[in-house]
Amino acid sequence: MNNVTGFIANTANFGVLKEEHFTINDTVNGTSVRQSKWVDWNHYVDELSFAQAFRTQLISAGFPSNTGMLIDTSRNGWGGSQRPTAGRGYFHARYGIMQETE
Question: Is residue 1 in a domain?
Answer without folding.
Answer: no
